Amino acid sequence: MNDNDDQTPFYLKKRYLIVFLVFLGYTNLYTMRVNLSVAIVALTENRTITVNGTKTYEQQFSWTSKEKGFALGAFFYGYILTQIPGGILAAKIGGHLVFGFGIFATAIMGLLTPILCYQGITYLIAARVLQGIFSGLSFPSVNAIYAKWSPPLERSRTASYGISGIYVGTVIANLLSGWLGDTFGWESIFYVFGFATIIWNVVWFAVVRESPEKDPWITTSEKRFIKESLKNQKGQRNIIKPPWKAIFTSGPLYVIAVAHFSYTYGYYTLLTQLPMYMRDILGLDLTKSGIVSGVPYILQTVLIFISGYFADWLLMKKYFTLTQVRKYFNNSALFFQMVFLLISAFVTNTTTIIVCISFSVGLGSLAMSGYLPNTIDIAPQFGSILLGITNTFATVSGLISPPLSGYIAVTPTAAEYQIIFFITCGVYILGIIVYGIFATAEVQPWAVVDAEDNENMNELKK
To answer: What does this chain do (predicted)?
Structure first.
């Protein structure tokens, strides 16, 4: 079965609209998540003050590098708490509701951030923890949406296209935050992205439903196509409750978690450190550092569309097995990220450094056809829960990287940032070895239930 079996015109296919709205949801989520990385530069930069004809310099918020590190990392303390609950909740009440609510609540906290900044660094940290809590609900819930809306042979594209909003959001936050801060004041960085997200929420709740069966606007042709494509997939039927013991003792799940952690550690390191690196080491001002920091994510956005399509094409042509596709794409991403990051650590030319970092971040897009859809591969009906578990492991990297970088880059100097880059490359190597040897895309026995068992369980449920 392929996409040609669905006679619905491309522009009327509801599953494509949902992926597009997921893309926009991630875009908004990450503008609010990333904007502090740029805003904190404006919040703590030296400003020229003239008093009685004498020029002096002062900071609006005189936070230390360690305090800034904790502020940048605070998001992850909340984020790690709601990964598994978000996946469970999505499986129970619908991924579309959890995804939408999580982003809405994150936007509300973003709008309150300027007020809380004036109350002190402790209030800012608390606001970021709460944003992390609400944002953490959204990420795993997407797999519950895909499990019901995305045909198996489209999942590399679906996962890649949807999550590419992360990188578009990162680009927008980096490009606009510097300009907004210079033009309208740093407060506008939070207000603009917060209100844009509220508008998206209105559209999301008006348009998206839990499944094709519950959608009144989907065409009969597309509904039949999705239903038939999912019918014969192992592990697609719903059962009463997840087999928790089997899940938490599943080797393939922990292999995915290691790959997820490795990729995310590098992503969070560059995400939080690039604006300050551009300013402190490369000597770029706020606007320029925001623009240049966004370049790697522009490249990543372009490549993610290409890699997602290419991965599904390889599967449809049967050139590789699903396990091979997952391994090759995931480890190619980690390998190229490591190589270009190492090169950037040893060169001194500003242009070369920017190009190398851009390729290091950009080629990470290949991993979106690797570890990311792998949780749906091994357990389709529990995909949201499994992604919540692996993302919990991955979020630990967010608790480690920003504070660790803050402790290392105290001066800051190029040598200190080299240490940060070397640590990141070591984490990449770990992911390459573990995923390359042990990863699989086979549906796990504990994720499969036959029709008779399913009927018996449903009877018990009644």
So the answer is: Receptor for CM101, a polysaccharide produced by group B Streptococcus with antipathoangiogenic properties.
Question: Can you tell me the distance from the alpha carbon of 218 to that of 213, in angstroms, rounded to the nearest whole number?
Answer: 9
Reported as a single tens digit per residue, the pLDDT across 182-220 is 889 889 999 999 999 999 999 999 999 998 999 999 998
Per-residue buried b or exposed e for 177-187, using 16+ beta carbons within 10 Å of the residue's own CB = bbbbbeeeebb
Q: Which amino acid is at 87?
A: G
| Average pLDDT score over residue span 51-67 | 68
Q: Which DSSP helix (H) or strand (E) runs through 147?
A: helix 121-149
Query: pTM value?
Result: 0.74
**Which tens digit of pLDDT belongs to each residue from 430-458?**
999 999 999 999 999 998 854 344 444 34
- 76's CB contacts (< 8 A; 6+ apart) are 132, 268, 395, 396, 398, 399, 402
Q: Per the structure block, which two tokens stand in for 141? A: 């819930």
CA-CA distance, 393 to 254, in Å (whole number)? 9
**Dihedral over alpha carbons 184, 185, 189, 195 (to 10 degrees):** -60
Angle at 277 between CA 273 and CA 281, to 5 degrees: 160
Burial category of 318 from C-beta neighbours within 10 Å (exposed 0-12, middle 13-18, buried 19 and up): exposed
Contact 87, 389 (CB under 8 A): yes
Of the candidates 382, 25, 12, the one whose C-alpha atom is nearest the C-alpha of residue 205 is 25
Query: Is residue 232 over pLDDT 80?
Result: no
- Non-local (6+) Cβ contacts of 239 within 8 A are 381, 449, 453, 454, 457
**In degrees, to the nearest 5, what angle opens at C-alpha 311 toward C-alphas 160 and 433?**
90
Buried b (16+ CB within 10 A) or exposed e, 289-309: bbbbbbbbbbbbbebbeebbe
For the chain, domains (ranges, CATH) are: 11-461 (1.20.1250.20)
Q: What is the pLDDT of residue 244?
A: 92
DSSP code, position 57: E
Query: pLDDT by residue (tens digit) across 362-376?
Result: 899 899 999 988 998
Question: Residue 264: what are its φ and ψ, rounded to 5°?
Answer: -70, -35
Distance CA 300, CA 315 (A): 22
Buried b / exposed e over 118-140, threshold 16 CB at 10 Å, is eeebeebbbbbbbbbbbbbbbbb
